[in-house]
Amino acid sequence: MSFFFRAASRQRPLPQEIARSLKDSLVALDTKTGAKALEDAEKNILTLRHTLAGDGEVEPNQEQVLQIALEICKEGVLSLFVQNLPSLGWEARKDLVHCWCILLRQKVDESYCCVQYIENHFDLLDFLVVCYKNLEVALNCGNMLRECIKYPTLAKYILESSSFELFFQYVELSNFDIASDALNTFKDLLTKHEDAVSEFLSSHYEQFFGLYTKLLSSTNYVTRRQSVKSFCWRPQMLK
């Protein structure tokens, strides 16, 4: 009986151990080949998900979740998440996206540590936008981007980056699911943060509406309909 009690009460790995194991296994994907490296990485991602969100039997410990977020940033794991996303299997990608969303929401000492990490590595956002071209990970990247767009500094960067114009191509892709997902991300970019959007439109008015007008005359009926339906420009956005 005492054996089972000890086993049941055994704690999960420490935050530092989880972050370090994740880093090592994701780095190994770049340096090793074979199923073992992938298996290790996916196993560690699942451990992270269970620690952040619970596993159905044990609820997450919020203090531990916050510590994991700090360690993830310290070890540069967010960058490895984005860089290795295409290498992972379907289930692991889903777990990774779930972890990404939870991590970005963690507030430590009045600041979102993972958001701050991305602010110092804006290239991750460009990578996620470009990955819409990859059919296997496009929807995963869309979910990750929409989580990022909830934060004004990240949304502002995407709006002002050269990769933003890619959305005008993505919403007309022949793959309906990806085009619809890109349109949802596009909509969030232009509606979530009024001040940032107003500033963007004021400085990129002709360029933006030149591209937007083309969407309104698209040969794709769904694109035309959603472009009209989704974006009702308000005068105050052009102040």
UniProtKB/TrEMBL annotation:
Q: Which organism is it from?
A: Zea mays
* Signal peptide span: none
Pfam families assigned to the protein according to its UniProt record, in alphabetical order = Mo25
The record ties this protein, via PANTHER family, to:
CALCIUM-BINDING PROTEIN 39-RELATED, PROTEIN MO25
Give the gene name: LOC100283172
Q: Which InterPro entries match?
A: ARM-like, ARM-type_fold, Mo25
Q: Family, per the entry? A: Belongs to the Mo25 family.
From the Swiss-Prot or TrEMBL record, give the protein name.
Protein Mo25
